[in-house]
């Protein structure tokens, strides 16, 4: 993946609702033609999806990052699954009561072994 493709993907991933393709090329400071080629490569790689969108009567595309499968080793600690997986709350890890309880439970299990 080129630096510009990686930068485009990072920009798209950082916008939860997606980024309009007509805005992406401006954010990347490249021409629209080059942006289209980058978008095509990201779509072909299965990293983003492109949804037709009308803005002020003009057709453009909304670009959204595809969710990738998670490596199970990242979400498991022993046999316990990370509580954040199914969570839809907007919180910070430092202040999340479910996450803190999970970490505390893991520490207890480790201490008892």
Task: Describe this structure in a few short sentences.
The protein is of the alpha+beta class and 113 residues long. It has helices at residues 3-14, 21-28, 32-44, 72-75, 97-112; strands at residues 19-20, 48-55, 58-65, 76-77, 80-81. The protein has two domains: 3-65, Orthogonal Bundle (Arc Repressor Mutant, subunit A), CATH 1.10.10; 72-112, no CATH class.
Structural description of this entry:
With 113 residues, the chain is α+β, with helices and mostly antiparallel strands. The protein has 2 domains: 3-65, Orthogonal Bundle (Arc Repressor Mutant, subunit A); 72-112, no CATH class. It has helices spanning 3-14, 21-28, 32-44, 72-75, 97-112, and strands at 19-20, 48-55, 58-65, 76-77, 80-81. The chain has a 3-stranded antiparallel β-sheet. It has a two-stranded antiparallel sheet with strand order 4-5. α2 crosses α3. The longest helix is centred in the last third of the chain and has 16 residues, at 97-112. The radius of gyration is 20 Å and the shape is elongated. The protein starts with a helix and ends with a helix. The model has no long low-confidence stretch (mean pLDDT 86). This is Winged helix-turn-helix transcriptional regulator.
């Amino acid at each position: 993946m080129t630096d510009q493709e990686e930068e485009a993907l990072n920009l798209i991933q950082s916008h939860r609702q997606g980024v309009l393709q007509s805005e992406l090329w401006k954010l990347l400071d490249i021409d629209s033609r080059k942006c289209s080629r980058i978008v095509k490569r990201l779509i072909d790689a299965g990293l983003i999806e492109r949804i037709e969108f009308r803005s002020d009567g003009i057709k453009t595309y909304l670009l959204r990052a595809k969710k990738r499968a998670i490596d199970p080793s990242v979400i498991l600690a022993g046999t316990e699954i990370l509580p954040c997986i199914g969570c839809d709350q907007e919180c910070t890890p430092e202040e999340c009561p479910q996450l803190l309880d999970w970490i505390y439970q893991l520490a207890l299990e480790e201490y008892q072994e």
